Here is the input.
Amino acid sequence: MLIALAGITLIWLTQASGLLILIEGESRAAGTALVSDERGPLVQESALSAGLALDRVEVEHWDNGETRSVRGVYTIETDSGQIQVDLVANEPTTVGGVRYIQDSRVGHVYAMRLTREDRTDEQEFFLAEPESLEQPAYLDIPLQTGEVLRLKSVLLDSASGAANLVARVERSGLVVGEQAVVEGEPAAIGELGVELLDTCRWTILVVDSTPGYGLLFGGFGVISLGAALLYLATPREVTITREPEGDVRADWHAVRFGRLYEREETLLRAAAAGGK
Amino acid sequence: MSMSTAMSLLVSAAVAYVGAFVLLLGEVVLKRHWRRATLVLGWVGLVLHGAAIATLWLAVGHGPIITRYENLSSYAWATAVIALITITRRRSLKPLGLFLLPLSFILLGIAAYAGPEVANMPPTFRGVWLVVHVVLYFSAFGAAAVAVSASMFVALPAAVRSMHMAWVPEADELDLVAYRYGGAAFALWGAGMLAGSVWAYSAWGRYWGWDPIETWSLVTWLVLGVYLHLRRFFAWSGRRAAVLLVIAFALVLVSLFGTALVSDSIHSVYFS
Here is the structure.
């Protein structure tokens, strides 16, 4: 119990974890702050202790298009140079004392140029992976004109994981126009010019450098071992002795947890006294 | 073909459980000598039920842990296993089957109503810790079901037991059964939570996230702990301990089946 409590205290004081939202080809230097971080009182800031880059994301799908597995290929800087690491969702990997967990959240990021009259904006839009072939992913972007640009990412086939992007402009709930958007082919939806500049994948990497988990689970292990030893030990002993006169004497003894067997003792005494 | 086979086997198992229950009722209440037939039918139902689970497993390629149908069927199977072992090994506890067998076929009925839809294994649903987590919870549910079946008889007023239910075992014996199985449920539930937290870390990068089901699970575990504590250190026994265990079992049902239906949860994404 003491070991477990020490582990809990250590984790509470030194917890340092958070996540990074990364695009394929993107790198982050050591010291980059993690988002959605959880920090203990002794930790100033949750940050990357080693630089890393996301080389690519590989997503496998089931036949109906649901996500089957997510694998991120990362390059991580270590003391002995750069190493490439394959991180698979649900399989945490420790590099240089830091645990990296590939999140199952993944999707496409679309770099787009939006043009209206003489104004041009270039933005990146993050859409989640479509849930299945029948269930696209959506993202609504409010425009300054009061219109809404709705992007729809449709999975084309489950084998390749390729997705098609459809853009729609709505004004006051009415559809102004809708068009499939293809890279290198500018399109116009109402008064809005839309051009897809680039497409790649994004994903989330969880980074955790909290010490103390080993101590905590070691404590649980010791507690479990102790419980097993207690459970497996014989809790009561009965010694039967034949007296020289021919009488038989039974000695009953609860090795531990005597109070737990009080009722049994009472029943035995009653039986010995001639009860049932 | 496999899906319909699984459903046919499941319905056959439910019929066998109902048959075993009826025979048990005759054996316990009407004092008929139907013990052998009861046990044979009960175990046949269990085998058919196991075959239904295995058939669906082979058809969909993953264990019975994702959809509502799969989960309810698994909980029903765990309950039937522990019920049949209990009433086979201890003749005096056979009245407990009057609660446990109906619980199994009611769970099966709800499972059949939900239907054996096919769900794919999401990326986070793999690894040995997930298997350990669900097996421990299935076992904990079975143990809690035996404990509450004993407690429900203990919770009845003594006058009712003596006048109308003479076939009920001695309250002391049932009380001890409730205590022991309640302790087993507490240990299995706690170990299940621990295994679940290790799996959660692999899947989402955190051991504990105050997800509604996690929170209710913790509350249930603590109430089971309070029950054991009151019995061990404050000498609670008899009716008041039995009533507390019935409340704890209600929490078990809320944790496992209720929360997923009424609130968003990582678990309910797949369970509901």
Observations:
- Chain B has ten helices and no strands.
